[in-house]
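Bumping with the actual sequence this time:
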Amino acid sequence: MAVYKISYVVTGKAHPGAIVNTETRPEVGDIVQLGNETFEVLEVLDLMPARGNFHFLHVTCKPISSEEQSSA
C-alpha cells in the first residue's frame, strides 16, 4: 500500500498550509479539507522519486468559497 506525504501550500490566502499523510494521491481539481477549510487542488508535483511505497508530493491549492462548494 502506497503512502503519500503531501506538503500543501495555499495560494490567495494567508494560510499556513499543511503536511498530510494519506493513502491516495491527490489530482488536479480534487477538493481537499485542511482543518475546517476547503480547497481545490491546482498542481501536484513529485518532490523526489518514491522510496519504496513512500511518495513525497508538493500540492498547490486555492481556497474555495461556500458558493463554489454548493455548486459542485
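The C-alpha cells above came from a reply further down the thread. The helical segments are 66-71.
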